[in-house]
Specification:
The complex is a heterodimer.
Chain A lengths: L17 H25 L2 H26 L7 H15 L3 H7 L5 H4 L5 H23 L4 H21 L1 H4 L5 E2 L7 H19 L2 H11 L1 H6 L4 H27 L1 E2 L6 H14 L4 H25 L4 H16 L11 H8 L5
Antiparallel strand pairs in A: 1-2
Helix pairs in contact in A: 2-9, 2-12, 2-13, 2-14, 3-6, 3-7, 3-12, 6-12, 10-12, 13-14, 13-15, 14-15
Chain B lengths: L2 H31 L6 H17 L4 H24 L7 H23 L4 E2 L9 E4 L2 E4 H23 L1 H11 L1 H6 L4 H27 L1 E2 L5 H14 L4 H21 L8 H15 L14
Antiparallel strand pairs in B: 1-4, 2-3
Helix pairs in contact in B: 1-5, 1-6, 1-8, 1-9, 1-10, 2-3, 2-8, 2-9, 3-8, 5-6, 5-8, 6-8, 9-10, 9-11
The chains are: A mainly alpha, B mainly alpha.
């Protein structure tokens, strides 16, 4: 009997005491940053790149959870938006010295000017957001697997543009020699920001409207949820995050090719969402981490034994088994109870 | 008629025949179990590699064609019983994700077994000759593909509209539960639909390899997606729609490449998908279907 007030049966984030939550959050963030600082001191360059990629994959999976998991839009368009973001960042942030020879299709003012990284990020986010808004207005009228295939088409269309727009993208061979402007701190920062944002959204009224839209659109509409607007918000927000991650990727691995943002990536992201549990942020993080590490752990095996495709097969097989025997994924649509307790500071939440 | 235009039409018809053959199976499976089978395109790849293996052992071509039909049917039935049947009660989206996973599984399995190298695939020399039709000539390969496709399609239509199995299929596609209550062996019917559809896809793989001269473990992606688009054009779930959609898509693609300046030719796939999205938005039930009820 620690409190006088009766416990609500399903506490939401809004009823926790802000001060306590803020403190816990601050402590947790500080602990994470400290761990990261230790890690950067200890790890090799390879380990740091791997950790950065894991952060970006987690960011992608969590943003996919917003669009596909919470709102139930089965969109596969993430790689398309990543590709757009990556190319914008790569082209705008390309070294001036090589611009005139590599990017002969670039408009005049950009040829002699290398945009700073922060500005390219903003450009990527804004342009991807506008594109996603236009596409979302049109495509979100489709449901279920029709939406999936239309957004799959989006990947093929953007890939086609990237392959054929030689003057701006250098076609299928891709753009290389992009300056390496991001590091583990940028990637971890982005990840923290996105995870926090999606977490807040999930436990807010918008998040509930999203889940209502997912469960039953007609019922949601009848209690006053503007489902069209909610879907558009989820779609555009997910796309903008994907675009920013694309820009980060370009400046992390310093190469952008059309083939890296294809259907395989879309499949891996879907696998992360489904394995973790549709709508579960914790699940997305765990699954993204698992798939990234699995792929990396199997790389030496694939290369030494010539078994290319092994890790992808394992992911696909696990996905089939999970769909068959545990369709709700690791965590269902929720978050694990101990985590909620930790964040809310309650013993019986 | 000018030779150039005639060549374009023949080319469109032969490409359309391939799309139609693949799309029919796709559409049958969707019509009966409401499953967008993303792995359908990979049966094209399986068919192509199975044919290559059989040709290399020296089997005569007609026998190869018949056996490939069988190989495809077996592969389709295996996938159905092992993966899709246990999931039949799941939602459509779950089913779609499962087929996506199966497709990735097959593709990477093929990459592991066969390596990522392109293999050349040659029809016998006879096929490279040209045949005269009323003053204009067409390649033997294209003519054979068109004729074979028409024969196969006729056989399929006969099965669907003139046999007991076909009646059972149509009943199951109309209403699975009601068909079951009326004594239709639903499981066997679905298995047959998978077998027929996959067999057609596999034999399309044989012809695809012969037409384009090269095969690859990931070659199934393009035909699979194109078949889906052909189905959407004609109305997913309708066999005649898939046929019309396939031929229309083949023609549209050839005209797109043939009529526009060459520098736009490589935008072909982008164009086809744009077409898909536009059709989905304007007439999601397909161009040739008057009314489709919303099914749960």
């Amino acid at each position: 009997m620690s409190k006088n007030a009766p416990e609500p049966s399903a506490p939401v984030l809004s009823d926790l005491r802000p001060a306590a939550a803020g403190l816990r959050l601050a402590i947790a963030t500080a602990a994470l940053l400290a761990a990261l600082w230790l890690f950067t001191g200890w790890s090799s360059a390879y380990g740091l790149t791997l950790a950065s990629l894991a952060c970006l994959n987690i960011t992608l999976a969590v943003s996919m959870q917003l669009t596909n998991g919470l709102t139930g839009l089965f969109s596969l368009g993430h790689p398309a938006f990543m590709m757009v973001g990556a190319y914008i960042a790569a082209v705008l942030g390309y070294p001036v010295a090589r611009k005139s020879t590599m990017l002969f299709g670039l408009p005049e003012p950009f040829v002699s000017w290398q945009m700073p990284f922060g500005l390219t990020l903003i450009c990527a986010a804004v342009i991807v957001g506008l594109i996603a808004l236009l596409i979302g207005l049109v495509v979100l009228r489709l449901k279920g697997h029709y939406l999936a295939v239309a957004t799959l088409g989006l990947i093929v269309i953007v890939q086609g543009l990237a392959i054929n727009w030689q003057g701006l993208t250098r076609g299928g061979s891709g753009l290389s020699g992009i300056p390496r402007l991001t590091n583990i701190w940028w990637c971890a920062g982005l990840m923290l920001l996105v995870v926090l944002m999606v977490w807040r959204i999930k436990f807010s009224s918008i998040g509930r409207a999203m889940m209502a839209t997912r469960e039953n659109q007609l019922a949601a509409e009848s209690i006053g949820v503007k489902t069209a607007r909610i879907k558009l918000i989820a779609f555009v927000l997910g796309a903008v995050i994907a675009g920013i991650v694309g820009a980060f990727m370009a400046h992390l691995i310093t190469v952008v090719t059309p083939r890296s943002y294809g259907i395989v990536l879309a499949f891996n992201l879907v696998a992360m969402v489904v394995l973790g549990g549709t709508g579960s942020i914790t699940g997305a993080i765990v699954a993204a981490l698992g798939i990234t590490l699995l792929g990396e752990a199997l790389k030496p095996v694939e290369e030494s034994m010539g078994l290319y495709g092994l890790s992808q097969m394992i992911v696909a097989l696990v996905l089939v088994l999970v769909l068959r025997f545990r369709p709700a994924g690791l965590f269902g649509s929720g978050e694990p109870a101990w985590l909620l307790r930790l964040i809310r500071g309650r013993t019986n939440g | 008629m000018s030779q150039y235009l005639f060549q374009q039409i023949v080319n469109g018809l032969s490409l359309g025949s391939l799309y139609a053959l693949i799309a029919i199976g796709f559409s049958m499976i969707y019509g009966i179990v409401r499953l967008i089978n993303f792995a359908h395109g990979d049966l094209v790849m399986i068919g192509a590699f199975a044919s290559l293996a059989m040709v290399q052992t020296g089997l005569p071509w007609p026998l190869v064609a018949a056996l490939v039909l069988l190989v495809g049917a077996c592969a389709g039935m295996t996938i159905e019983t092992m993966i899709f049947r246990p999931m039949r009660s799941a939602t459509q989206v779950t089913g779609f994700i499962a087929t996506l996973a199966v497709s990735v599984l097959i593709q990477n399995g093929a990459l592991l077994l066969l390596s990522g190298q392109q293999r050349s695939f040659q029809f016998p020399a006879v096929m490279r000759q040209r045949v005269e039709i009323g003053g204009v000539s067409a390649s033997m390969t294209d003519v054979t593909i068109i004729v074979m496709a028409v024969l196969l399609i006729a056989a399929l239509l006969f099965i669907v509209y003139r046999t007991r199995l076909g009646t059972a299929m149509r009943a199951t596609s109309e209403n699975l539960l009601a068909a079951q209550l009326m004594g239709v062996p639903v499981n066997r019917t679905i298995l047959a639909a998978f077998a027929i559809g996959s067999g057609l896809a596999a034999i399309a793989g044989l012809m695809w390899g012969g037409k384009f001269g090269q095969i690859h473990p990931l070659m199934g992606l393009a035909p699979g997606l194109k078949a889906f688009i052909a189905c959407v054009i004609g109305g997913v779930g309708s066999i005649s729609g898939a046929l019309l959609g396939g031929y229309l898509l083949g023609m549209a693609e050839v005209l797109f490449v043939g009529l526009l300046p060459p520098e736009y030719a490589s935008y072909r796939d982008s164009f086809v998908f744009l077409l898909l999205i536009v059709i989905l938005l304007i007439k999601p039930s397909g161009l040739f279907v008057r009314h489709v009820e919303e099914r749960a």
